[in-house]
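Researcher: Next sequence.
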Amino acid sequence: MKPTTDPPKTTSQQLQARREAASRLEPLECGHRDPLDCTASCTGETRETEVSPEAPEFDPGDIAGLWADARSLWYARDFPPYASTAWRELHPDDPKRLAAALEAAEMWRKYGDDVTQWLKDAFAPHAPVWQRPTLAERDAAAHPQPPHQLRATPGWPPIQIPGKPGRYLTHRQELAA
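Model: Next structure:
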C-alpha cells in the first residue's frame, strides 16, 4: 500500500498543528508545553538565531489581509532584501517576508536568468585570498600577447591574409616556403 501524502500545509497551518500537538503534552519544568515557547531564562541557554517574537496580528486564514499588508510594504519598500539575515529573522507569517519574496519574483520576471545567475554568483563560495591570483600574475596576464602566426592546414580552404585584400594563404604556399 502506498502511503497517502497530504498537500503541503502553509506555515500558519503547520504552526497551528504544532500548537495543537503541544497542548496534549505534559508541561516542561518551566511550565511551557512547546519547547519553542521557552526563552533563554527557561533553559539557561541562548539560541543562535531567534525568530522575532512578535507575531503579526491577523487571522492565519486571512490571506487577503496578508496580501494587502505585503503589497503596501512592497510599495513603501519597507522590507529587508530577500534571503538576507534580517529577512530570515522575521516571523514566518510576517508580511515583510512576503513583500521581499514578491520583490525577488518581480526581479526574476523582469530580468529572468540574469538575476538567477547574479544570486548564484552572490551566494557562491569564493576561493580564499591566498588561492586567488596575485597582482603580479594578473598584471602578467594583462600584457598583450604576440600576434598569432597564420598557418594553412591541409584540406582546409585558403585563409585570407588580414590587411592584404585579394591575398590568400594556402597549404601549397606554405609547403613551398
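Model: The mean pLDDT is 75. The first helix runs from residue 11 to 23.
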